[in-house]
Amino acid sequence: MNVLLFPVEMKGSRSCNGTIKNGGHPYRTPWCGEGMIQDFDLTARWSTLLHAHFTEDVHNIAQLWPDVQSLEVSYRTIEGFDPTFAQSILEQPDLHDDASNRAVRELLADVGYGNINPWVRIVHLPSDQVRTVSQLRSDDIGLMISIDAVVTKISGVRPRMYSATFKCAACEHLTIIQQPNEQELISPMECSQIDGGCGLTNRQTRFHLLQERSTLTNSQFIELQELPEQVRGGVQPERISCVAEHDLTG
Fold first, then answer.
1. Which helix (H) or strand (E) holds 47?
2. Are 79 and 106 in contact (CB under 8 A)?
3. Mutual orientation of helices 93-110 and 55-64 as an angle, nearest 10°?
4. For 25-34, 87-96, 213-222, which range has the lowest pLDDT when averaged over its residues?
5. Other beta carbons less than 10 A from residue 201's beta carbon
6. Could you tell me which residues are beta bridge partners of residue 201?
7. What is the C-alpha separation between 175 and 195, in angstroms, rounded?
């Protein structure tokens, strides 16, 4: 059995200060006063951080790819770079996940490695973000936290649809839909005219899945259990199921 202490994001919804998933949505940040900063500016902020502290590490990914597919970024380094920026990562991990990955890929593309797509992994979260399995609460939904637990069960690695490409039967326009749920395939509601489609709904036309144009990723289910020293006498240890994706599988 392996003892784990690694950052995870608690998926779900929050009544306020929720995670903003879609690029282009504004969020408030103290480093620009009471103004609003766009997702594009957040990517630029990540680019500045990577240029300042991780240029050599990014270069190493290009040299070692595909054996190394992620860049580990210590939260302590981010906090030293900008404490407010670091705090926003804990509160809005989805937004920072998109921006950080985009930033590292743009940095690689600038030096001639635009064909690889690594992932940014944030490690060494502060101690107040560490939870045991039994300590998880609804307040943790939408936040980035670490879980201190032991792995008790690992499934096999299976491919999962990460983004699906559909072709409209009426006009042959292509629509790409992100697939956040590994157990459900989300298809288009309409052939969007904004993106150049015919505007027909899914009741007026059919959408054919193009697997060869879709993106698959490795996926694996992991069961975590409380450590024996974390359990009170006579109480059964609690468990939680997690999903590992991309290079975290195996």
1. helix 39-53
2. no
3. 70
4. 25-34
5. 10
6. 190
7. 8
Given this structure, which CATH class describes domain 3-130? alpha beta
What's the gap between Cα 5 and its chain centre? 18
Identify the three-state secondary structure at position 165.
strand
CA distance 167 to 196: 12
Q: 184 is written with which tokens?
A: 């459900």
Q: What is the pLDDT of residues 172-186, one digit of tens each?
A: 999 999 998 877 899
Residues of the chain with pLDDT > 70: what percent? 84
| Alpha helices (H) in 54-181, listed in sequence order | 55-64, 75-81, 83-91, 93-110
Whole-angstrom distance, CA of residue 210 vs CA of residue 219: 20
Dihedral sign computed on CA atoms, order 148, 242, 11, 58: positive
Q: Which of 27, 168, 99 has the alpha carbon at shortest distance from 177?
A: 168
Model confidence pLDDT, tens digit, residues 52-89:
999 999 999 999 999 999 999 999 999 999 999 999 99
Rounded Cα gap, residues 198 and 200, in angstroms: 6
The set of residues, in sequence order, having a beta carbon less than 8 Å from that of 222 and lying 6+ positions away, is 151, 153, 154, 155, 241, 242, 243, 244
Cα maximum dimension of the chain: 65
Interatomic CA distance for residues 58 and 70, integer angstroms: 9
